Amino acid sequence: MKILKTLLVTAAISVAMMATAQAETKKIALVVKALGIGFFEAANKGAQEAAKELGDVEVIYTGPTTTTAEGQIEVINSLIAQKVDAIAVSANDTNALVPALKKAMDRGIKVISWDSGVAPEGRLMHLNPSSNPLIGNMIIKLAADNLPEGGDVAVLSATATSTNQNVWIEEMNKVLGNYKGINVVATVYGDDLADKSYRETQGLIQSHPNLKAIIAPTSVGIVAAAQAVTDAGKIGQINVTGLGLPSEMAGHVKSGASKSFAIWNPIDLGYSATMIANDLIGGAEAKPGAELKMGRMGTVKLDDKNEGAMADPFVYDASNVEEFAKIF
Amino acid sequence: MKLLLKNREMLLVVAIIALLVLIAVRFPPFVAPGNLANVYNDTSILIILALGQMAVILTRCIDLSMAANLALSGMAAAMLNAAFPGLPVPLIILVAVALGAALGSINGLLVWKLDIPPIVVTLGTLTIYRGLIFLLSGGAWINAHQMSDAFKALPRATLLGFPLLSWLSLVIIAIMVVVMRRTPLGRAFFALGGNPHAAVYTGIDVGRTRFLAYCLSGTLAGLSGYLWVSRYAVAYVDIAAGFELDIIAACVIGGVSIAGGIGSVGGAVLGALFLGVIKNALPVINISPFAQMAISGMVIIIAVAVNARAEKRKGRVILRKAEAAHG
């Protein structure tokens, strides 16, 4: 009985708290690197979607006109003066924003960073668009999804020493066993140079006649590989996939050189950042191991550095690439 | 001396053939005629650039800004095409060439009128031109779907079975042979590089000749800018980054003396082809990417070493000739 009573009381209190919270709209500021950048305009679209869904949230989309830390500090100071409830920032500088953001947190404003993070002391949590294991899995999945019977695939990376790509390829190799019949026959390096990547792709086409897919987890490489496959007349035989930007890949998806590729979805990112900010305003605590709510995106689990990964990279194909090409 | 240069070119031909044999052992399809044509086509842009660089190096100067010039002209061509897709491609090429020539003439004027060391001038303009691309494009890419089909099709169009890009480089080689061998300007390049003081006494304007050499290299870089951007169907700030070193390496391998005055069109072309064969072969013969860099570097050093020996011998020959004349 006692337990039931406690539960009821707790429920009543939380209902009461929610009611008071609902009485006035919560102001969440989405601070971006600079205004007028397609990627961030799209993030704002997602944030507005979240605000609409939540009902009692007003999203203030703001940022400097150029990508400077000074500009962002000014913006943050004015947001503190406006007494917003939360700030979600994509930072131009990891450390420079920390003092201003600390000041905001001292005044009870919930601060999170997303996309481009700030140092841990300047925010409650950081939202990464994805994580290395998720990316590694996605790039091989993109190739495997178009190869139901399996086949030879090759990786065209950036330089042999680039950390990001090496980690992703390592993560890819870990989950390779889950994709039956997919053989990674070679890993070559285009050094993020268009001409070298093009030549390496030509080399792959020559030395692996049965090649079915090329995975390029780099934006220069994927474009160059798609062009090389097109010029070699191998569209339909070799599918180029990996990580790229819709605006850069739209033509190659249209031509069929690339069936699909992946990268973060800025709309989802803005949506999730707003949802997390709302969750924190509502009393959720950002600590290692905590799970924060992101609405339709599920939940994000924080690691020991209070960072979390939003989701798998978003897949772009002929059905949506044109729409996103206008954004970023 | 002519005989020696001929020998040197023969030496390069032999080296390229030996290289092809070595590659064929590991990967036979590489030496199929169709693939060799592809390798030539891939090397075309490097050949065109190496010929421009050769003219500059002959006059005891150097042009480090060629790749940046290429990138800026290429970006301008791509942006022009993206903004006005209806503009005829020859006009766009003309703009790229003119812009390249103008950028080259800036180098030339600084070397000529202000007498600044060429390496400093072109190191400076290299950075400036790269910076200008950023200002021009705002850091944005011009992508395949933003370029018109005609813009991308020109270097790929085939004539008598070969791509237009290959034909164009052959035309440039022919023009350069005529310029170097049959015009006063070509002879002025050699005379000035061989002995600037003596050249002055023969009535050659040293500064003006250098200026023209830079204009030539700039023009060819501008042309290459269009070719590069349409071949790879993408333009961004960093295209051809570091390519200036490949251009100079092609010249050095081809026997163009960094000290000026020595070199030939055939040598520069063969030097570029030598590099082109290596660049195209390394991906198919399955060598670690770290070894690839080391191999490229070693080849250049060996070429310079051979070059140095060749120049030494030349000195002796002249002495002997002089002695013979006295005797």
UniProtKB/TrEMBL annotation, chain A:
Compartments, as annotated in UniProt: Periplasm
Keywords of this entry: Signal
Any Pfam family matching the protein: Peripla_BP_4
Signal peptide residues on this chain, from the entry's feature table: 1-23
Segments crossing the lipid bilayer: none
Entry keyword annotation includes Amino-acid biosynthesis: no
Gene3D superfamilies: 3.40.50.2300
Keyword hit for Transcription regulation: no
PANTHER family linked: ABC-TYPE SUGAR TRANSPORT SYSTEM PERIPLASMIC COMPONENT-LIKE PROTEIN (PTHR30036:SF8), D-XYLOSE-BINDING PERIPLASMIC PROTEIN (PTHR30036)
Recorded family membership: Belongs to the bacterial solute-binding protein 2 family.
Protein name (database record): Rhamnose ABC transporter substrate-binding protein
